[in-house]
## 1
Amino acid sequence: MPKNNKLIKKNEIEDKLPETKEAKRRRIKTNAILTASAILVVIIVVSVGGWYLAYEKPLQATVIEVNDSKVSIGYLLNRCLMNASNTNDTMGMIQSIIQEQIIEQVTLQPPYNFTVTEADIDKELRDEVNASASGTSTTTTGTSTTTTTGGLSDSEFQAWYRQALNQSQLSETQFRDVVKSIVLTKRLTTYLAARMPTTTDQVHLYDIVVADSTTANDVKTRIDAGEDFQTIAKELSQDVDTAAKGGDMGWVPLKGLDSDLEGTANSLTIGQCSNPVQTSAATQAVQSSSNGTNDQPYYLLMVTEKASGREIEPTYVPYLQQRLVQDWVSTQMAIQKIVLKGKGTSGGYDSQTAAYLQYEIEKLKASRGITETTTTTTSAY
C-alpha cells in the first residue's frame, strides 16, 4: 500500500511540472484550429438553414391537393416554365395539373382500368420527338424509287431525352408522369369517342365576329333597327371562314361550340340576333376568328333553323370528342376533393399567392436565362 501511495504522489508532481514552450505552442495552435472549425461549422449550418427556410422550404409547400395527391409550389413553377408560350400562366397550369391528376386517379380504376407501362411512355416520347424531327427523302436507283421517313436514332433520342429532362428541372419520375398523363388523356378520348352518339342537337348558325365591345354594340343596334344580319357580316365580320358567306356557319352541333356560345345559340328564337357575347376561350370550337390581335373577340349570333338528333358531320367529330373530355373532367371536378393552398389568411389561394408565384417565376427565369421566346422542352412536354 505505501508503494502505491508513492506512485500517486509522483504522478501528481509530474502533472504540476512547468509546460515547455513547444508544448504550449502546439496547444494554442490546436485550440485555434478547433475554434475556427467550430465557427465554420456554425456558419455553414446557419447559412444552409437560412437558405432552406428562405427558399427551398417555401417551394416544397403544397399548392394543389387533388384527393390524397399533393403538388408542391416548386413543381408548379417548373411546369409553368415548361409552357414556352406563356410561362406566367400559373392558373392555366394549375387547371392543367388538376386535370392530369383527376384523369390519372380515375381512369386507373374501374370501369376504365387503364394501364400505362414504361414502354408506353417511351413510345409516346419517341412518337412526339420523331414527329417533330421527321422528314422524307426520296432516292431513285434506275427505275426504283425509295421514300424514307426520317426520325431520331436511339443515340439521338437518348441525347434529346437527357436534354429535355434537364431543361424541365423535374425529377425523371415527375417528367415521365407528365407523359403518362398525355397517354391516359388520349386513351380517355378514345374510350369516350367510342361511346359518342352519331346524332345530336344542332342549329343552322350565322355569326358576326368583331374585336371590341363598341363595334359589337353598334352592330347590334343596326340589326335591331332593321339592317340585314348577313349584309353586316360581309361588311364587318372578322371571321374569315364565314364573312364572305354572310356569316353562314352551316349546321353546327351545339356541343361543338364554346360553352358561352352554346348557351346563347340554344336560347335564340329563329331569326333573332343575340346580344354581343365574349367567349371565355375565344375560338375553342368550330367557330373560326381571324382576329389575331384580340384573344377574346365578340360574337353576335343568329339561328335560322334548329334540329334535334341531326346526323353529325365528320368535320365536327374532333370538336365533339374534345368536348366529351372537357365535360368528363368538369363532372369529375365536381365530385373529387380539390383544394388550392397559398398565403391567404385561411391558408387558401389568393391574390397574394398569385403575386408570390409570379415573383418566383421571374426569379427562376432570370436564373435560367429564360425569355418568353425560349423553348424549354418540346411543345408537348
## 2
Amino acid sequence: MIRRLIILLLIVGCAKEPAKEVAKEPEPIKIETLDVCRCLVEPGNTQWAKDNINTCRDAISEKIGVANWETINFSQNPILDARWESLKSSCGY
C-alpha cells in the first residue's frame, strides 16, 4: 500500500503543466496593402500605429520618392514639399 502511495505521489508530482499559449505579435501590414492615409492620420499611440511604424515610414517615403521622409526638411526642398502636400491632400488631410 505504501509503495502504491509513493508511486502515485511521484506520478502526480512529475506531471507537466499544460503549455501556456504565447501571445503572437501581430505582423505588420505589407507596403502593397497598407493604407498610407491611415499612416498619416492614425494617432501614434495606437497598437496599429506601433505595429506598422516602420512600414508606414517606408510607404510614405516610397510615395514621396525619398529614402526616409522623416529626415527631409521640406521647407528647404520645394519639390519634395509639393509631393508631401500632394500626398496629404490626396488623403483629405
